[in-house]
Amino acid sequence: DLGILMAGLRGTNIDDSDFAADGVTMKVVDVEKLENNKFGDALPLYYDPELIAQYWERRPAAVAQRMFQLSTIGGSFITGLISDFVTKSVDKNAVKRAIQLREIVTSLGPAYIKLGQALSIRPDILSPAAMNELQKLCDKVPSFDNGLAFATLEAELGCKWQEVYSELGPEPVAAASLGQVYKGKLKDTGEVVAVKVQRPAVLETVSVDLFVLRKIGVFLKRFPAITTDVVGLLDEWAARFFEELDYNREGENQTKFAESIKVDLPQVVVPKTYAKYTRRKVITSEWLEGEKLSQSNEDDVGDLVNIGVICYLKQLLDTGFFHADPHPGNLIRTPDGRLAILDFGLMTDIDDNIKYGMIEAISHLIHRDYEAIVKDFVTLDFIPEGTDLKPILPVLGRVFDTALEGGGAKNINFQELAADLAQITFDYPFRIPPYFALIIRAIGVLEGIALVGNPDFALVDEAYPYIAKRLLTDDSPRLREALRYMVYGKNKVFDADRMIDLLEALETFRQASQMSMGDPNMPAASPRLALASATAPATAASENATREALQFVLSPDGAFFREFLLDEVVKGIDALSRDNAIRVLTQFGLQDARVPLFFPGLPSMINLSPSMTKDDKETLASTTKLLNFLLRGKRSDNLGDLNANDFTNFASGTSRANQQKAFNEISPFLPAVATQIVPELASRLSSRLAARAIRDVFGAVPA
Q1: Which residue range or ranges hold the Protein kinase domain (predicted)?
Q2: Measuring CA to CA, which residue among 336, 393, 31, 12 is closest to residue 205?
Q3: What CATH number does domain 146-198+246-348 carry, 3.30.70.20, 1.20.950.20, 1.10.3720.10, 1.10.510.10?
């Protein structure tokens, strides 16, 4: 069952055909028999079950016609489904019904095709085997008559199509359940475009099918044995489906998505929407040449997969505007080596609670704080509110211990971890929420493409630079707290290695983003794109004289990071000064010397040599390691690796040209260093030294 479930979640059986199978037909409502004008009403353009019911209750003949179509095509399926609910055999017969539905659903029309596809990633509703069967559905159906298509196009645009397009068709290049696509050319600009026209009678067919299905759902409520809220699930899905029928919304989604990624991911292409020539039933978009990423043999496929991973992470953790149809046919490699994403009819909004909860869970995972992770899973909707978490904690602990044993969080195998989490759903009140099923599908599609060319592809390793970037640069209180936890952990102990891990990952992300912009001397039509692997040396792609990490720490973006960084530097300077004092006194044999103190109530003698605790030594080592990293690019806690040139040059070399380049790189930050960082550092250091002096003196007073 687990294997079948994960195959279903990953989309292993997705039918990616470009054309309909032989003999496929699709029955729709006969619009001419609806007598639309007789009652002076119209169907709502948004999902409203009451208005839809009022419309169809006035047209019993049309409803009877549709029910006859449904009964002749799917009568045995509907009868069997009702029987399963009544006899409590839903789970037992799930696979049988899924096979039946898959075999007849294309003929039933768009509502049933889309419903089947939606259920194929709902492990909280269907059994694994049923999900697996429904993934074999194909949305490709025979094209409809070109005359009807052009009539719809002209009715929507309000003019002859020749007034808008100098070329169009003559045959569609693709046909699906909701519409078909023509290749054309705009008359006013000469730009090549894709023109999608909605299939006639889609709204009528979809709404009458929902009317019938809802009636069945209401009827099933009479049976106490049926605990599933069929009507509620149907209404939730139908509201989103109605949005997909509006091509204006799809165009808006396309534009919004492109805007949300253009800064960080210029190597991802989204077709431009021509709003002037887009209507509810027609959308005109930029035509993109290319081949399916899954079918490309080019050398840069692995890089494009990495870009795709970052793109979906950005949707999940940043914008919250998630492409809800991750499908091999929607990922295209363009001739200039960029990744194009298509089809924005169906999007999912991920709220801040989920976005931040995911990053918090990653922070807790890195520190193996499994008690916190279990609570995170409640936030993330894996575990229902009010569930007793004690039985689940040891199970999740074993799952994550196994995942982390291969080298820490960056080396986690995402699909194996997802499979282990899915396994828990069989035995505990633990579920895979719909949004996470979409994530598994998207990552599964990308990982499947990547593993063909790179068997060592590691998703989390590729994703870590983006996660680090989010942690280090986001100013939301929850992510700032997650950053603090990442560096200090549950025991609130500063971890220089984890801080350096984050800074190195940030460097990798920034350098990869700069590379993705392309060489400015190259033609704009052929940018050089590469999102470097997170495992590559951070300095390999950079020609900076100073580390990106150092520039970040000094920049406005690094303001919050500096807050606790300054605390550690102050502790380090304090420890270093006392360490040096001890070294000097030891050289003169004065390490045990005591000096008189002439103050009433205080001891007469105190130690001349300052004390160095274990914590002081660890702080000194951590601070030294961090400075070695920022100034020399080394992970070393040896003070001997630092020298005066490091502090004056901020560079790995000592040439005058390199010193000048280093100065130019950090010069924008020097005013802030002079007016903010240095005074703050001096203030904190003087406060700490004063406090320590008081503790050293008064701490020697006998109780």
Answers
A1: 167-494
A2: 31
A3: 1.10.510.10
